[in-house]
């Protein structure tokens, strides 16, 4: 009888311990985002907490709306930074890691060294801010390996397909170009990366990765359908 109660007591204790451990490990999405930001020391990489947090919020809202598949890749192109900086960041949110950082070009009519103006109109040759997801298949075009982007923000980037806005490599988005001109060259609105990194990055982001093109736009923050901050208070899916 004593032996039975001993086993029973141990069983109750283990059940309580497992439940308590599971509860203790629960974290909100905001806590997880802060953990990544601090552990990866993103401030030293010149990515602001606001840019990262908005990217995570957008990623989660798209995921909950079934607008992205099982990809855990989030890419953030930070247009508050000078184009001579490595302002394009690639994260694996499931691993909580910054996995790559590189140059990212903006559109010809958005500005010279800084992207200051944005447009969703065809023929504008400007960059479009907001949330995108990548198509599943890459292709080879005039700029080499490329991948199409689907813009999810109405009035901000939902004309991406009609404008042929794609992710591609370019010789004007390289450290060599920066060394010569102290800035990147410019695209016709596409988020271009160094041509020697394009193959790796296209393979990384294809099939519903989320790309967030960030600028400090209060109009965008207020009007986007995918920046509901309440998701920060929910349990992290990672």
Structural write-up:
This protein has 238 residues and is α+β, with helices and mostly antiparallel strands. Helix content is 30%, strand content 21%. The protein is built from six helices and eight strands; from the N terminus they run αααββββββαβαβα. The chain has helices spanning 2-25, 29-39, 49-64, 175-181, 198-205, 218-223, and strands at 73-78, 88-92, 97-102, 130-141, 144-151, 166-170, 192-194, 210-214. It has an eight-stranded mixed beta sheet. α2 crosses α3. The radius of gyration is 21 Å and the shape is globular. Mean pLDDT is 92; it is low at 10-24.
Provide keyphrases for this structure.
238 residues; alpha+beta; eight-stranded mixed beta sheet; 30% helix
Reconstruct the topology from this structure:
Layout: H1 2-25, H2 29-39, H3 49-64, E1 73-78, E2 88-92, E3 97-102, E4 130-141, E5 144-151, E6 166-170, H4 175-181, E7 192-194, H5 198-205, E8 210-214, H6 218-223
Parallel strand pairs: 1-8, 6-7
Antiparallel strand pairs: 1-2, 2-3, 4-5, 4-8, 5-6
Order of helices and strands: HHHEEEEEEHEHEH
Helix tally equals 6
> Compute the gyration radius: what is it?
21 Å
Q: What order do the strands of the largest sheet run in, or round the barrel if closed?
A: 3-2-1-8-4-5-6-7
Assign a percent range to the helix content.
25-40%
Q: Distance between the terminal alpha carbons, to the nearest Å?
A: 45 Å
Main structural class: alpha+beta
The description of the largest β-sheet is: 8 strands, mixed
Q: How much beta, percentage-wise? A: 15-25%
Principal-axes shape call = globular
Q: Mean of residue pLDDT?
A: 92
Runs in which pLDDT lies below 50 for 5 or more consecutive residues are 10-24
Q: What is the number of strand segments? A: 8
């Amino acid at each position: 009888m004593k032996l039975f109660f001993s086993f029973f007591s141990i069983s109750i204790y283990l059940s309580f311990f497992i439940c308590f451990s599971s509860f203790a490990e629960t974290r909100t999405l905001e806590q997880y985002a802060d953990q990544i930001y601090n552990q990866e020391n993103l401030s030293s990489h010149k990515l602001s907490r606001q840019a990262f947090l908005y990217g995570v919020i957008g990623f989660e809202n798209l995921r909950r709306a079934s607008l992205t598949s099982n990809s855990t890749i989030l890419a953030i192109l930070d247009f508050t930074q000078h184009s001579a900086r490595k302002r394009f960041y690639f994260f694996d949110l499931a691993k909580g890691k910054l996995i790559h950082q590189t140059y990212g070009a903006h559109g010809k009519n958005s500005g010279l060294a800084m992207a200051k103006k944005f447009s969703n109109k065809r023929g504008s040759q400007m960059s479009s801010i907001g949330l995108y997801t990548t198509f599943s298949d890459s292709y080879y075009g005039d700029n080499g390996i490329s991948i199409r982007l689907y813009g999810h923000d109405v009035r901000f980037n939902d004309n991406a397909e009609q404008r042929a806005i794609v992710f591609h490599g370019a010789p004007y988005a390289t450290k060599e170009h920066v060394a010569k001109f102290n800035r990147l060259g410019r695209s016709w609105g596409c988020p271009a990366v160094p041509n020697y990194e394009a193959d790796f990055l296209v393979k990384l982001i294809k099939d519903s990765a989320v790309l967030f093109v960030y600028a400090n736009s209060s109009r965008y923050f207020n009007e986007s359908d995918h920046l509901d901050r309440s998701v920060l208070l929910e349990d992290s899916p990672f």
